[in-house]
Amino acid sequence: NTGTLILEGASSIQNNQSTRGGGFYNAGTLYINGGTVQENSTSLDGGGIYQASGTLYINGGTIQSNTAAIGRNGAGIFYDGGTFNLAGNPNISSNTVNSVANNVYLKGNNNITITNILSNTTAIGIVCENGHTDRAFTSGLSGKGNAEKFTSNVAGREIGVNSLGEAIIGIPYTLSFVENDASIYVNGNKYDESTL
């Protein structure tokens, strides 16, 4: 797509195969307001949607059961360039690489722009190319949603919210206090005041 395309209602993009973007390769303006993008596949990245440039608006619809090649990413959506706007109640789930969840892949430092209230009940799985240590991946989430709207598709990482109200992906921390030696432990490692 290099023009303007709108998917809505009962429309379905299904059972297509491509190098990138089995359902859609977007370099224009693409609206997913409804309908389904499912069971598409690629020999590289972006089984459902490959967002190359231009603008992607996802306000609803279902993007599921798409696949990308082994060793690749973004079985649901591969966000390479342009702008990715998200709002409403989309279902982006069950997209896999070699049977492992890989729903939305954010290349480089790309962030998802939250344009209105997120009401999705199925958490959207996230994978970030540039780090999974307290890396913010949204812009505009505060007041429109919370961390529960997303989940990590990376083992050992979880989703949280930073001081600005943006979603972050990072290592979960467990703090514990051992009274008998007045020590604080972070993820099982002992710290003293000089290292906190």
In short:
This protein is mainly beta. Helices cover 0% and strands 46% of the residues.
Overview of this structure, please?
Helix content is 0%, strand content 46%. With 196 residues, the chain is mainly β. Strands 1-5-9-13-18-21 form a 6-stranded parallel β-sheet, with no helix packed on it. The radius of gyration is 18 Å and the shape is elongated. The mean pLDDT is 92.
Keywords:
single chain; 196 residues; mainly beta; 6-stranded parallel β-sheet; elongated
The main β sheet shows up as: 6 strands, parallel
Strand order across the largest sheet: 1-5-9-13-18-21
The ordered string of helix (H) and strand (E) elements is: EEEEEEEEEEEEEEEEEEEEEEEEEEE
Radius of gyration, whole Å: 18 Å
The average pLDDT value, as a whole number, equals 92
How many strands in all?
A: 27
Strand content: over 45%
Distance between the termini: 51 Å
**Low-confidence runs of at least 5 consecutive residues:** none
Shape: elongated
Q: What is the number of helical segments per DSSP (H or I, 4+ residues)?
A: 0
Give the topology, please:
Blueprint: E1 4-7, E2 12-14, E3 17-18, E4 24-26, E5 29-32, E6 36-38, E7 41-42, E8 49-51, E9 55-58, E10 62-64, E11 67-68, E12 77-79, E13 83-88, E14 91-93, E15 96-97, E16 100-101, E17 104-106, E18 112-118, E19 124-128, E20 135-136, E21 138-139, E22 150-152, E23 158-161, E24 167-170, E25 175-178, E26 183-186, E27 189-191
Parallel strand pairs: 1-5, 2-6, 3-7, 4-8, 5-9, 6-10, 8-12, 9-13, 10-14, 11-15, 12-17, 13-18, 17-19, 18-21, 19-22
Antiparallel strand pairs: 15-16, 20-24, 23-24, 25-26, 26-27
